[in-house]
Amino acid sequence: MGSSNPQNADDIFAKYFGASSPFGTKSPNSSPSSSTTTSYRFDPRNADDVFQEFFSYGSGTSTSSMPKKKPPPLECILPCSLEELYSGSSRKMKISRDVVKANGRSVQETEIISIDVKAGWKKGTKITFPDKGNEQINQLPADLVFVIEEKPHVMYTRDGNDLIINHKLSLADALAGTTVNLKTLDGRNLLVPLTGIVIPGYELVVAGEGMPISKNTGTKGNLKIKFDVKFPTRLTPEQKRALRRDLEG
Q: Which residue among 95, 118, 143, 203 is least crowded, i.e. fewest CB within 10 A of its CB?
């Protein structure tokens, strides 16, 4: 039987890692030849301290060094007339928001921002101002977002890039022809000649007189004129005879 050679934990650790303990350092008072038992000074650092030393943070990291979260954007409705969306416009908006100062105090600041509404923008278009929303402690400032909303118009209705208008026409004009004079959204007088017979519900398409197409500069949609022919509510016997005579040729 060979003699056993018991080793303690320190010996085993020293064999593989070159030091007798992972938790201590050799005492400066000991000498290599003084004895077979070496004394150690306990290292007071805990696991968090060691982790902090190697990776710059531990489980006890302060909240000030944690990454700040960005809250959801603050959305505001921006009502625009159809004229503004046709020609484009510039808006000045006064906003007030909460801001966190370096001392941690929250104060309210007021600012004037400019919004350039582009010709052809549609309902639902969003204009984002980064970091112009409210700010809270330990959070990044929110973004401020304006959402375009179209105001109703007294004459025109928008359908995508097209404009629709309903126009009343007398029976005489529907049969004999006339020229329709329309006021456009940019203030022009648009003359549309009617040379044929217009029946009730007839829709005339005028190319290139609709809304500007924002993604294709210089192009526009169409204008659709829907005619409502007004019939007389009554005719005298003489008018009926004259009408029949004229229609029957």
A: 203
Helix, strand, or coil here: 141?
A: coil
Token readout for 140 is 């990044």
Reading the block at residue 101, the tokens are 């100062």
Q: Which of 224, 194, 226 is nearest to 209 (CA)?
A: 224
Identify any residues that bridge with 105 across adjacent strands, giving them in sequence order.
Answer: none
Segment 55-92, tens digit of pLDDT:
444 444 455 567 889 999 999 999 999 999 999 999 99
Angle value at C-alpha 187, between 175 and 220, nearest 5 degrees: 80
Of 191, 194, 199, nearest to 177 by C-alpha is 194
Round to whole Å and give the CA distance between 12 and 66: 40
Could you give the CA distance from residue 119 to residue 217 in angstroms, rounded to a whole number? Answer: 9
Q: Which residues contact 33 (CB under 8 A, 6 or more apart)?
A: none
In whole angstroms, give the CA distance from residue 32 to residue 21: 16
pLDDT, tens digit, for every residue of 156-197? 999 999 999 999 999 989 999 999 999 999 999 999 999 999
Cα 26 to chain centroid distance, Å, stands at 63
